[in-house]
Amino acid sequence: MSTLEALVAEEIAALADALAPLEPDRWRADSLCAGWTVAHVVAHLTMAARYPADRFGAELAADGYDVTRTSDRLADADAALPPAVLLADLRSDTMATFAQPGGGMAGSLSHVVIHGLDVTVPLGLGRVGGDAAARTVLDQLVATADGRTVLGVDTAGRALRATDVDWAHGHGEPVDAGAAELILSLVGRDGVPALAR
Known about the structure:
The protein has 10 helices and 3 strands; from the N terminus they run H-H-H-H-H-H-H-H-H-E-E-E-H. By secondary structure, the protein is mainly alpha-helical.
């Protein structure tokens, strides 16, 4: 098992453990993904456990190969699944070993870390994953040469430093925040203040 595979498996297990005690109404709480509840995010995160490649391909074809439309439609439908089913999917061997198309295991790690924070932060659980995964995702997000993150967030002229893990990036105006807040800022989540000017 590669280092990335091990980190993905650890992050998924930590997220599942954090969500398992939630009462059903907490699954209907808003996430940081606009318009999505906690259940929507977990349903989206665990699509690979319910839709093998051939079935997902058929779903994609039904939407004219619009990946966003298919992802949104399936998340909306599957958010109605019982939390126990979503947790079982999250804990499945499929999710622990699934490599994102086009992104590989690095993409899978970013997917689980970012979407994990999308639900745990608004639930008041904070960052439940490990430091190594947080550092790896932070490095992935700033791995560009133009002062922007891979998702286009401007970091030019700022010295980012995580206050809870050993990670720093850039030069200029100091921006000190926890790894969770930095990750969410670097992917452009609304209402996360670390990179707000």
